[in-house]
Every structure is written in structure tokens, then in C-alpha cells.
From TrEMBL:
Stored PANTHER family: HEAVY METAL-DEPENDENT TRANSCRIPTIONAL REGULATOR HI_0293-RELATED (PTHR30204:SF94), REDOX-CYCLING DRUG-SENSING TRANSCRIPTIONAL ACTIVATOR SOXR (PTHR30204)
Classification lineage: Bacteria, Pseudomonadati, Thermodesulfobacteriota, Desulfobacteria, Desulfobacterales
InterPro entries, per the entry: DNA-bd_dom_put_sf, MerR-type_HTH_dom, MerR_fam
Origin species: Desulfatibacillum alkenivorans DSM 16219
Origin superkingdom: Bacteria
Name of protein: MerR HTH family regulatory protein
């Protein structure tokens, strides 16, 4: 496409696109003439990514350039987009969840046959309101992650069996969280109710971050050292 079409697709001025190229944020396009060049769809996707990193994460351009360089392969770019989708700072507070099974499936992209399975595995749940199932924003995010896993190749074709793995995760994680909650209630037994609620909210957010980084730490360790199951 011509640069005029690229401007139309992205909403970014021509001067800005030229600056991105000079700064190394975009690769040099293929020349089709002395004053013309051809831009493919990858330029549209990369410009959208730059704007997301600026607007949603407030990254300066030098940092964005570093992020793009470190995620230049297609697989790493896919993982970057996945992280951006599920770890936007304010999304947790702005999301309100959805009402009804059909709305949940539409919001997540999940196939209908998987909804009862995810409930059975304790990965998602819902409350009933006026005869309809109401799903939280966390449930919506979990549904989206399950879809993203399948699209990224983590599925039966790669010998991943969700009915075994995810059911075990759901049960074990439920048990871990219950232990933590019981321990918290015991530790704050003599604390005033309002203060206890505030402590619970802070603890909830901190533990969520802790679980995320613990998983990344040990998964990376097992992969790098070859200590995981099935690596003998």
C-alpha cells in the first residue's frame, strides 16, 4: 500500500511515520520509485502496537524501540500482544463483567462446549441474578486466556490435554487460595472490620502479582535447567 493508505489505516500522520522509520521503530519500506515506497500489513500492525505502548503503558519511544527489537520474531510479538491485552493497569478496575452465557461466549470468543467444562474445573464461576448467570471480569479474562492458549498452539494437537491439566490446576489452586484466606482470617481475628477489609483488598492484589511472578520464575527455571517432568 502507499503511504497515504497507511496514514488512513492507522490514523498516524505521514510525518510521524517517516520519523518512526528514521528512529528505527519501523523498518525501511521497499522502494517502488524515487519518491514512492510500498508498505505491507505488518506496518499497520507495528504502528498500532507503538501507539498502544504509548497510550496504554506510557512508554517513551526509546523504550518502545527496545521492546520491539526484543520481540521482533512473530512468536515473541504474539506473546507481547497477549501480555498487553491481559495486563493493562486499569482494566481490572474498569471491567464490570457480563450477564448471560451468550454474552460471556461473545466477550471471550470461547466455544460453547467449553463453558460447562471450565465451570467443572473450577476455573470460572458465576452468580445468578434475575435468573441469568453473571460472570466477573476475572472470569472473562480467564475465558480469553483459554482461547489465546488454543490459538497459540497449546492444544490437543501439541499433546496438551486441558481436561487433565486444567482440572488439576483448578482444584489445587482453589485449595491454595482457601489456605491463604483461612490464614488471613485467623491472623486478623482481632482486627476491626473496616481495617480487615482494607487489608484483604491489598492482600488480594499483592498475592495475584506474587502468583504471576512465581509461575514465571519456576517455569523459566524448569525450562532452562531441564528439571521439569518428562525431561529425564
Amino acid at each position: 500500500m502507499k503511504i497515504s493508505e497507511l496514514v488512513k489505516c492507522t490514523g498516524v500522520p505521514k510525518q510521524t511515520i517517516h520519523y518512526y522509520i528514521r528512529a528505527g521503530l519501523l523498518p525501511k519500506p521497499e522502494k517502488t520509485g524515487s519518491n514512492s515506497a510500498d508498505y505491507d500489513q505488518s506496518y499497520v500492525e507495528r504502528i498500532h502496537l507503538i501507539k498502544e505502548l504509548q497510550n496504554d503503558f506510557f512508554f517513551p519511544l526509546p523504550t518502545i524501540k527496545k521492546v520491539l527489537w526484543e520481540h521482533r520474531s512473530a512468536s515473541k510479538q504474539a506473546m507481547l500482544k497477549l501480555r498487553m491485552e491481559f495486563f493493562r493497569p486499569m482494566e481490572h478496575y474498569l471491567g464490570t463483567g457480563v450477564k448471560g452465557d451468550e454474552a460471556f461466549l461473545e466477550a471471550t470468543g470461547l466455544a460453547a462446549r467449553w463453558l460447562p467444562k471450565l465451570k467443572e474445573w473450577n476455573l470460572i464461576g458465576s452468580r445468578t441474578e434475575n435468573g441469568e448467570s453473571v460472570y466477573s471480569q476475572d472470569d472473562v479474562s480467564i475465558g480469553k486466556v483459554m482461547v489465546a492458549m488454543a490459538k497459540s498452539g497449546i492444544n490437543r494437537k501439541s499433546s496438551f490435554h486441558p481436561e487433565i491439566t486444567m482440572s488439576a490446576i483448578g482444584k489445587q489452586f482453589t485449595d491454595i487460595v482457601k489456605i491463604l484466606i483461612d490464614d488471613f482470617h485467623q491472623a486478623t481475628e482481632d482486627t476491626k472490620n473496616q481495617e480487615k477489609q482494607e487489608l484483604a483488598l491489598r492482600g488480594h492484589e499483592v498475592m495475584g502479582v506474587l502468583f504471576y511472578h512465581l509461575y514465571r520464575k519456576y517455569a523459566r527455571q524448569f525450562i532452562e535447567e531441564g528439571d521439569g517432568p518428562g525431561t529425564n
